[in-house]
Design goal:
The complex is a heterodimer of chains A (34) and B (501).
Chain A lengths: L5 H24 L5
Chain B lengths: L1 H24 L5 H6 L6 H12 L2 H14 L6 H27 L4 H8 L5 H33 L3 H49 L2 H12 L17 H16 L2 H4 L10 H32 L15 H9 L3 H39 L5 H24 L5 H25 L5 H25 L6 H19 L5 H6 L10
Helix pairs in contact in B: 1-8, 1-14, 3-8, 3-12, 3-14, 4-12, 4-14, 5-10, 5-12, 6-7, 7-8, 7-14, 7-15, 7-16, 7-17, 8-12, 8-13, 8-14, 8-15, 9-12, 10-16, 12-13, 14-15, 16-17, 16-18, 17-18
Classes of the chains: A mainly alpha (34), B mainly alpha (501).
Chain lengths: 34, 501
């Protein structure tokens, strides 16, 4: 994709997606201190 | 004509900044207002402040320059640096904001002094280390501003420095963190919009991403790989691991970044702020990096010629934008974008140095009986002194400057990461462990940095070795010494959890 080797697309794209996913999970499970 | 339009836009921009500073100065009634904007920062002001404190002008020029020079293996920088914003907010911010509001912390040194029951040694050590590294950074920022102003107007280096220095010092001194955070919201907005508009133009001019990657692969097949092959001087897989740690954790614990978490108004901001900070920052930085790639392809095809200079790669962003748009307005706005990026880091650094001196060194160590008014005054004077001193050094930069600036973030990682992480998450971390870990990190980062630069190149980033030593010192010394009082550990929310119950 984008004229890149598959491994580059997967590693870079995968890391970004993973980071966003982790941060979204953080947001959805966040609870305020009482 | 070009000079007139650019000059007008830049002058308008500076006038607006000073106006914000003057509005902010009316809100300053005590040192808490000055240092922490009265702990009143709203969601967007807080989130953009974190992003823009990390993002400097050299980030813009350096990011595209590195993309130009080495292609895709450098893309990790654009993932780890935005992650540092999220890391600072989640791993340090949630607890520090919670405890800070309850205990009335003004700076991160207040946390160290409280958590490690060390009101003088830990406070003094971390304040002095923080001031030294921030000052080194500051010189680099001023040098960056003057490079930009000299390009734009063809004025003398010292004149450029004087103008920028006066504007930033003025609004920072009178308005404290109120002025710094609100000017940053404005500067951040310009920066984000500007990059979103301009980068796609350059990428399109170079024929789109597929065509750019094709051109990169022809120059050097490694340019489209995710890392450089073993034996390359940088960006090998093992280098990338140390580089990732350095950027993600080192930037997150830099004093001008981490102190921001104490100023957020509401704990619930910490829910969405990490993902928004990451997303905004990553989009902007990916676009800037792609502009560097596009620039390389344009230079290769002969459409663009870079000047003859040692750091020619750092000019790629400026030259690419000049190529795609001949409009003087676009050019003027571009000038403001780069200025906005540098100034938003510079003002935060100056304020950090001022408050670390005024609050930690003066109020808490030298003169504990000082009144609040006196502390406020000393902080303001230190901001001006920090600006004046670093401006003088930037006019005539010492030959070691490049090395020192490059050292700065590595020293930050080695000095602050372990005491902060262990302090927040390990109940066994003791005062002696923290002092040992901080001083060994500071000293060994200096030694390894010097070794890498002047003796023999190291295979991974120099800060990694210092980080390991700092970690070992923390664990070994803490295990041998008596634990801190459990009441204090409870009130500082110390333990293996992120969110206080």
């Amino acid at each position: 994709m984008f004229g890149l080797p598959t491994i580059t697309t997967i590693l870079v794209g995968g890391t970004v997606l993973l980071a966003v996913l982790v941060l979204l999970i953080w947001a959805l499970t966040f609870r305020e201190a009482a | 004509m070009v000079e007139m339009v650019t000059l007008t836009v830049v002058v308008l921009y500076c006038v607006l900044l000073i106006a914000i500073g003057s509005w902010a100065s009316k809100k300053i009634h005590n040192s808490e207002d000055y240092i922490l904007a009265g702990r009143s920062l709203g969601f967007w002001v807080f989130t953009i402040l974190i992003v823009a404190s990390i993002c400097s002008g050299m980030t813009l020029l350096g990011v595209s320059g590195l993309g130009y020079a080495a292609g895709w293996p450098t893309i990790w920088e654009q993932i780890f640096v935005p992650l540092s914003a999220a890391f600072a907010i989640i791993v340090f911010g949630v607890k520090l904001n919670h405890v800070g509001t309850q205990e009335g912390y003004m700076t991160i040194q207040d946390y160290f002094a409280h958590r490690f029951e060390s009101p003088r040694a830990m406070r003094g050590l971390s304040a002095v280390a923080g001031i030294i590294v921030s000052l080194i950074y500051l010189i680099g920022q001023y040098t960056a501003i003057s490079i930009i102003l000299v390009w734009l107007f063809g004025i003398q280096h010292w004149q450029a420095l004087l103008i920028a220095g006066i504007v930033i010092t003025l609004y920072t001194t009178i308005g404290g963190l109120y002025a710094v955070s609100w000017t940053t919201l404005f500067q951040g907005g310009i920066l984000i919009l500007g990059v979103l508009i301009m980068a796609p133009l350059v990428i399109l001019q170079a024929g789109g991403l597929t065509s750019i990657n094709g051109a990169l692969a022809e120059i050097n097949p490694n340019f489209v790989q995710p890392y450089m092959p073993a034996g390359a001087p940088a960006f090998t897989p093992e280098f990338l691991v140390s580089f990732g740690l350095l950027l993600m954790i080192g930037l997150a614990c830099a004093p001008h970044v981490i102190n921001n978490v104490l100023a957020a108004k509401d704990e619930k901001y910490f829910r969405w702020s990490p993902v928004i900070a990451f997303a905004v920052y990553a989009v902007v930085m990916f676009l800037v990096k792609f502009t560097g790639f596009a620039g390389r392809s344009l230079v290769e095809s002969g459409a663009l010629v870079l000047p003859e200079a040692i750091n020619a790669q750092d000019f790629i962003l400026v030259y690419s934008i000049q190529l795609v748009s001949s409009s003087v307005f676009v050019w003027a706005i571009f000038a403001v974008i780069v200025l906005a990026a540098v100034m938003s880091t510079t003002d935060r650094l100056m304020l950090t140095v001022g408050t670390m001196f005024g609050w930690d060194v003066y109020r808490n160590i030298l003169r504990p009986s000082a009144s609040d008014k006196e502390v406020l005054m000393v902080s303001k004077v230190s901001v001006v002194a920090a600006a004046g001193g670093t401006l003088l050094l930037a006019v005539n930069p010492p030959p070691m400057l490049a090395w020192l600036i490059w050292m700065g973030i590595g020293v930050m990682l080695a000095t602050f990461a372990v005491p902060l992480l262990a302090g927040l998450y390990w109940r066994g971390a003791t005062r002696q462990g923290a002092i040992a870990s901080m001083s060994i990190g500071l000293v060994s980062a200096g030694i390894f940095g010097y070794w890498h630069q002047y003796v023999a190149a190291l295979p991974v980033h120099f800060s990694f070795y210092a980080l390991v030593l700092s970690f070992v010192a923390m664990v070994a010394v803490s295990l041998l010494t008596a634990k801190n009082d459990s009441g204090i550990l409870d009130s500082t929310c110390t333990g293996w959890f992120i969110q206080p119950k």
